[in-house]
Structure formats: C-alpha cells, structure tokens
Amino acid sequence: MTDKTNPARRRLLSAALALPVLAAPAWAASDEPWPSKPIRWVVPYPAGGGNDFLARHVAPKLGERLGTKVVVDNRPGAAGIIGTEIAARSPADGYTLVFGDNGAMVFNTALYSRLPYSPSDFEPVGFMANFPLILVVSPDSGFTSARQLIDETRSNPGRFSYGSPGAGSPHHLAMELLKDRAGLYIVHVPYRGTAMAIQDVMAGVIPMMIVDTAGGLGQIRAGKVRALAVLSRERIPALPDVPTIAEAGVADVEVSAWLGMYVPRGTPSGIVERLNREVTAVLGEPEVRSALEEFGLQVSPSSPRALASFVERETVRWHKLIRDRGLRID
Predict the structure, then answer these.
(1) Half-sphere exposure of residue 131: CA atoms within 13 angstroms, side-chain side
(2) Which of 17, 49, 117, 225 makes an SS bond possible with 136, Cβ 3.0 to 4.6 Å?
(3) Are 104 and 119 in contact (CB under 8 A)?
(4) For 117-135, what is the HEC assignment?
(5) DSSP classification of residue 107
(6) What angle do CA 168, 307, 62 make, to 5 degrees?
(7) Rounded Cα–Cα distance for residues 177 and 193 (Å)
(8) pLDDT tens sequence across 11-31
(9) CATH number, domain with residue 197
(10) Biggest CA-to-CA distance, the chain
(11) DSSP-derived 3-state class of residue 159
C-alpha cells in the first residue's frame, strides 16, 4: 500500500518530519535578537555580602554593554543551595545568570547526600574574581604569629576552637585543610555568617577563624582582629605585611573564596561567548577593577573552558579532603 492511498500514514509521516522544528528552542525559531528583555542575575547569598558587592558593581556596566537591564536577584538560604536550584530550573535562554562558587560547584556534591541540582546543570561563562582568605585571631589571644599558633595548638589538641561562617563554607574547609596539613586538632564552631563569628573573635569568645577579605579587611585594618597569615601563594596587596601560611612552614594550603558566572545548561553557545566577552570587558574597566580591589577582591576573568578545568581540579582536591576527614553534613 502506498502513501498516496493511506492518508493516516501520510499524516503520521508529516508529524514526524515536523518534530525537529517543534522541538527547537524558542530562541532559534524566533527572529528576536538576544537580549530583548531584562536579564536576571541570581546571587544565592544575602544582600550586603561580597558576592552581592561584586554583582552590583558589574551588573549596571554589563547591562550597558548588552543594551538591557541586568537585575541582581538575591536568593539566599541553605549555604547557597536555594538560589542555585532556582537558577538550575530556569530556562536556558540567556536571561538567567548565576554565581557559582566553591560551595555550589565543588563542595556541596561531596558534603550532601542529596542536592536539588547538579553542577552539570550549568554552563560556565567564566571565572570572575576571588576573595583571599586570612587566618585571624583575637588581639587578646596571645597569638602573634601563625607559627606560634600552630605550635601551641599542636601541643594542646582539642583545647582550642575556631569559628566559621557556617559548615561547608570555604572558610570552614580552608581551616580543615590547614588542620590536615599541619596535624592539628581544633574544634569547629559554626556560626550563621561571618559577622557573628568575627564578633566573637573580637570579643575573645573564640580565639581564631579564617575570614575572607570582604568580611574581615575592615576589622583587620581597625586592629579589632589580628591577621597572622594569608592562605595565598603570595602575599596580597591589601595586606602586604601579613605573611603567607607557607612562610609559617605549612605547605599546600592555598585557598580562596572564588566566584564564577554560570548559566543554565543548554544556553546557546553564542550567548555564552557574548557574556564572557562582555563580562571580561567590564572587569577590565579601571573604575570597576579599582572598586573591587578596594573591597579586597582579586579580579581574574577567564574563558569558559578555563573555569571548567579549574573546577575539575578543585573537585578532585576537595572531595578527597572531605572524604578523608569525614566532613559530610548529611
């Protein structure tokens, strides 16, 4: 029997041939240029923090270059998981951006048995910046150098404690890495954010913590806490007199709180490339770079491929530490 004599078969074939057109994403079938409406930038942390500061300095300039408004949308909660999930469930049409960091893209998959998203739900746009991490103590703690702190805590296992902005934060895991490399036993006291933790360090309630430059630079410069070491490969311009932790004799403890831009997986490659080009240009503007560096950020834009490769290396490194030290949260 031929198609000419079988109308039902002819209709079925016509429907099958139409499927690729029907399944194509809306942006491909439309003549509407991108962007043609405001873009949402999901920040999975509260307003006023370092991530928010970076987004709000970059968003207006990025909007100017794209010819549309870029709206910062703070969606805090559950160590960044809530906002990241919102972004993962958004359409891959170029109108949703999201910050990805150590926690969302590396730590969480090892810390939690169940996550409502996967890092593979996203496409990297590029690395943006990082916050150097600093080991600080109470001015009344008696510690005047990182070497002294390491020697005394090693000699008194379990006697000392340290604070962090929360379990699973870069600050928490950075201290766990330091403990692992230096052979220390210091008790972890998690807080709900940097502000509460550093307040207790200033008051002498806990003797030490690791802070990032956004959350601790002001208190260090005011003498409210004492900086003993930076967890960077080299000393940082914001605190040139503070030695690195390697100078205190502890190797392989190079950590920062980093930030990259991501979009939902499936976002057209042309949009990803455009976003990378424009974000890199904005971060290169002297006015923007100066403001971010004054806040303690180290600006370092990259290609999507470079960010993906960096995250792969970080995942291997941190998942091993989390397994070895039994740091699972659930």
Answers:
(1) 25
(2) 225
(3) yes
(4) CCHHHEEEEEEEEEEEEEE
(5) I
(6) 100
(7) 20
(8) 433 443 344 443 444 444 445
(9) 3.40.190.10
(10) 95
(11) coil
